Amino acid sequence: MKILLSSKDLLFGLLFASMAAVAVAEADGVSWKSPAFLVDSFVELAMKNGYSTRQNPVRKWMTPVRYFIVHRVGDADLHRELIDTHFQHLAEVTGLSIQSVDARAAANFLVVLTSEIALESEVPRYFGSGPLSQNTMLFRHSLCLATFATDRRGTIVRAVAMIPVDAARARADLASCVVEELTHAMGLGNDTMQPLPSIFSRKSNLAFLSGLDHMVLKMLYDPRIKPGMDEKAVRPVLQKIAGEYERNGFFATADRDAAENGLARLMP
Questions:
Q1: 242-267: per-residue pLDDT in tens?
Q2: Does domain 31-266 have CATH number 3.40.190.10?
Q3: Percentage of residues in the chain with pLDDT exceeding 90?
Q4: Cβ-count burial of 84 within 10 angstroms (0-12 exposed, 13-18 middle, 19+ buried)?
Q5: What does the alpha-carbon distance between residue 195 and residue 69 come to, in Å, rounded to a whole number?
Q6: What is the 8-class DSSP label of residue 55?
Q7: Which of 216, 226, 243, 252 is the most buried (most CB within 10 A)?
Q8: Domain residue spans in the chain?
Q9: What DSSP string describes 199-238?
Q10: Alpha helices in the chain (DSSP H)
């Protein structure tokens, strides 16, 4: 028997499953709330690459982000709500101006919503048919993908995220794909094997940004963190910022801030 779900029912199911995963992770009691742990996590998530041994410099946007959604599947209203809400969350955390545009030519960030069967043709169209250039980084969440390109200084200049919606829905992974791939393209490029309480850890079941992810992203977009900084240059600055976060009580509110200001706000 086939059960048909409305967009509202589907959205509720996606978010309920995601929040349940967060609750399980929090019950594990992983303690990350210290300046030293935060600094090490920044280096792990923002400067390392699970697909290469080469360490990256800091990469971040320095200009407004203008995104365009390419719809090749149904439920456009639902998908736009997910994407718009997460981009709004990213804008709040980073301080970037992030807005949708009506024309693809005006965008520097494309979000492509497609089907699994179309990936073979869609990937070369949006990611290129040959090896990725040195300045273009590709990340994967299951079947979902994201890439961004930087200039020589490490400033991100364009990005693409691609989500095969049917495959993501079949795995109850649609919301997670949106969150992870759009956030990857902000400059947190690593899919790590470290057991961090992070959506980017392959050893966690998180589907939304965690408190740790929230604070690492916030650190990345502190004006004192510059594109192109290597680990030696960035660590002292990170340590100073992390110390400020501790004194200002940000560790205590990070999990709540990440949950209340993200896709969880769409819960009925």
A1: 999 999 999 999 999 998 877 766 65
A2: no
A3: 62
A4: middle
A5: 33
A6: P
A7: 216
A8: 31-266
A9: TTBTT----S--HHHHHHHHHHTSTTS-TT--HHHHHHHH
A10: 7-27, 35-42, 76-94, 119-127, 165-170, 174-184, 211-220, 231-247, 250-260
